[in-house]
Specification:
- The protein is mainly alpha-helical.
- The protein has 19 helices and 5 strands.
- A 5-stranded mixed β-sheet has the order 1-2-5-3-4.
- Strand 3 and strand 4 (501-505) form a beta hairpin.
Length: 534
């Protein structure tokens, strides 16, 4: 009874830890990816469909989670991050129960608590409600279902199907989750005793594949019935296959190293403990658990590296096996004979402090010092997400409701904040540029959409990608000409030499587009020129 009560109390403490860490982060302004999910979620309320009506390369689950968040009686940004908090809490608790399978209760709790800290780490952009945050929850639960299916005297088809279905749900948040199914299928014989282990392995492959395919099939059926299946496949599958092949090997190594240097500021000690943990599991007779954690790390890294860009938030996928390995390392170090003169509670406290000190130092100012605007500037230097809410209010004031806006840029959060639809299905322009075989065709189609929409307001937020030599520049040339011929400047977004940004209303009502001297142009809101009477 006492053991069960302790488990419940430790689980409750993990929920409190997640809430304490993430609650102060709820009002941080949306970043670019969050903006695209929020915009599409908002348009779902108008009976519109992802991919058919709005272009995006992410699977659809995140849009519907955001749609649920927007239905809550909270301010939208807080509501979105609150749902992220709930998913983080569920993942943390699930990881605790996963860790209980091969380590002492305290160390499993420590691994989960470390996951809560590192999952919100600003250096991995963990404050955002991004796809990795949502994907990890069903992935961890799929591993719990895997062990339930493999357990002696409990082996049954329902857990096999559930393991596959949960992987399918994770895939619907981010495509790289699919590697989890291959990871679960490979070690199944090692966790099943008896002479029929290979028969059991074949059974697991078949039934878990069925669970996976049921989820994929239901989603495909949903889009087929709404005449959007081809667009779903083209954006979620075909486009991403082109996307992941766009980065050269040398650039991949450069991007990976650059991100690892950043992450080392909070994860160096965790990496060292994880190495000790993997070795300790191997030498202590828990070979299959060492292989499981190592395999999970390898599989997760395949997911992290699939695109070749190694953005910091990709590395959240590595956190579950990493923290479990680190907790196993702490458990191993606590048993070293040299520590025996120190009480057990003292050893646990010292190792806990050592593992958590760097993440806590990183998080401290974000929890207790920075304003939401300051926080988002620190997390995404060189971006102006902090200014987007005010910039959007100006767009809203000069654009009639439900009147389309053309953004020459990649800031869909502006459309969400302003509650104005996009003049084109491309709510951010990145898919129009790059080594895609039909990029030119897409650019011309986008021009047609904008000319048909006749937006009354445009936003100029140039990105270097739109001007990169060697890429198709048709849409860039057309956009610059279209904006110059049809619009005048209403508002500037400018920055000084230190990067301090401010929004400046143009007082000349279109008589002059002169730019303030000594300032850096970040963007501009443009209003359509009045048409001359015939």
């Amino acid at each position: 009874m006492w053991r069960g009560t302790r488990t419940i109390l430790l689980t409750a403490s993990l929920i409190l830890i997640v809430a304490a860490i993430r609650a102060p982060l709820l009002p941080i302004p949306l970043e670019r990816d969050e903006g695209e999910y929020a915009y599409i979620a908002w348009r779902l309320g108008y009976n519109e469909l992802p991919y058919r009506d709005w272009i995006d390369q992410k699977p659809p689950a995140v849009f519907y989670i955001y749609r649920f968040a927007l239905s809550l009686p909270f301010e939208p940004v807080r509501a979105i991050h609150f749902i992220g908090l709930l998913f983080a809490a569920a993942s943390t608790c699930a990881l605790f129960f996963l860790g209980l399978r091969f380590m002492d209760r305290f160390w499993a709790w420590l691994g989960a608590a470390l996951f809560a800290l590192l999952g919100a780490d600003p250096l991995v952009q963990g404050t955002a409600a991004n796809t990795e945050l949502f994907m990890l929850c069903p992935l961890i639960f799929s591993q719990i279902a895997f062990f339930a299916a493999a357990a002696k005297h409990q082996r049954n088809i329902s857990f096999m199907v559930l393991a596959g279905a949960l992987t399918g749900i994770a895939f619907m948040f981010k495509q790289v989750a699919i590697v989890n199914w291959f990871f679960l299928a490979a070690p199944y014989p090692a966790f099943v005793g008896g002479e029929k282990r290979w028969r059991g392995a074949i059974s697991f492959v078949a039934w878990s594949a069925m669970g996976l395919l049921v989820v994929l099939g239901l989603v495909a059926l949903y889009f087929w019935r709404r005449a959007g299946l081809n667009e779903f496949v083209d954006n979620v599958i075909t486009h991403n296959l082109e996307y992941i092949g766009a980065v050269e090997p040398s650039a991949r190594l450069e991007y990976c190293w650059g991100t690892l240097v950043i992450l080392a500021r909070t994860q160096t000690i965790v990496w060292a403990f994880a190495a000790v943990g993997l070795a300790g599991l191997l030498t202590s007779g828990r070979v299959k658990w060492s292989l499981f954690v190592a395999g999970s790390l390898l599989t997760s890294f395949i997911g992290v590296s699939a695109s070749g860009y190694f953005f910091p938030h990709y590395f959240q996928q590595l956190l579950p096996p990493l923290v479990l390995a680190a907790a196993a390392g702490a458990e191993r170090l606590a048993a070293v004979k040299l520590w025996k003169i120190i009480p057990a509670w003292g050893r646990r406290a010292a190792l806990t402090l050592l593992l958590t000190i760097l993440p806590a130092i990183t998080l401290w100012p974000f929890l207790f010092t920075y304003t939401p605007a300051e926080a988002v500037r620190k997390i995404y230097p060189g971006n102006f997400f902090a200014e987007m809410p005010e910039f959007a209010r100006r767009i809203e004031s000069v654009t009639p409701p439900e009147t389309p806006v053309f953004i020459f840029g990649a800031e869909p959060e502006l459309l969400f904040y302003a509650h104005r639809p996009s003049a084109t299905r491309y709510i951010f322009l990145f898919p129009l540029y790059g080594p895609y075989g039909n990029a030119g065709e897409k650019q011309m189609a986008t021009v047609t959409e904008i000319e048909r929409a006749q937006p009354s307001t445009a936003v100029y937020l140039p990105n270097a990608l739109f001007f990169t030599a060697g890429t198709d520049q048709y849409f860039t040339r057309w956009s610059l000409s279209y904006l110059q011929d049809n619009f005048y400047t209403d508002t500037w977004l400018i920055a000084d030499e230190f990067g301090g940004a401010r929004i400046l209303k143009v007082a000349t009502s279109g008589e002059s587009d002169s730019f303030p001297t000594g300032q850096q142009l970040i963007g501009a809101i443009l209003a359509r020129k009045p048409t001359s009477a015939p």
